[in-house]
Specification:
8-stranded antiparallel sheet, mainly beta
């Protein structure tokens, strides 16, 4: 496939759209404050072909214990615009759907339709995120088929935040 270099970029684009989900209001479950370890995994399929998974891990100090305000990944780039998330809560967490558009200077436009289930544990020491992103790219000099990205993330509290050094 001629667009091999686009595959990791597409998975990353889906992953960086996760912070927009933080605009939704969560169920009443609160997370424990402290140092958290997050693990992210995304798999991508294009024309029925699987692309190697992308795995990332981060550690973050979480002070705002509202699970909808977790800083899962860095702020979205300016070229990505998302609709307000649609939220349905349940006793297990919340289901969020939204659409995002990424416009590039070269005229390429990526449309993403996203659906995620976000579930904090009852004791607030863990959170899981599972979802899918359907991507369609237009404006490319060569046709790029639709892409399906499956994303899963887990986070768990690993201790107290380290004191800031002066």
């Amino acid at each position: 496939m001629k667009c091999r270099h686009m595959k990791p970029t597409l998975a990353l684009l889906a992953l960086i759209s996760l912070p927009a989900l933080a605009l939704a209001n969560p169920p009443p479950t609160q997370l424990q404050p402290g140092l958290w370890q997050f693990h992210y995994r995304s798999t991508t399929e294009m024309e029925g072909h699987a692309i190697p998974a992308v795995n990332e891990s981060t550690k973050q100090c979480i002070k705002d214990t509202n699970p909808a305000k977790l800083p899962l990944l860095p702020k979205l780039p300016a070229n990505i615009k998302c609709t307000a998330p649609s939220l349905q809560t349940s006793d297990k967490g919340y289901h969020v759907t939204m659409a995002c558009t990424a416009s590039e200077p070269n005229g390429m436009v990526t449309q993403m339709d996203e659906a995620f289930m976000i579930a904090p544990s009852d004791d607030g020491s863990q959170i899981t995120i599972d979802g899918t992103v359907h991507q369609h790219i237009t404006g490319s000099p060569i046709p790029i088929p639709p892409v399906l990205v499956k994303i899963s993330a887990t986070g768990h509290r690993i201790g107290m935040c380290l004191a800031a050094k002066h």
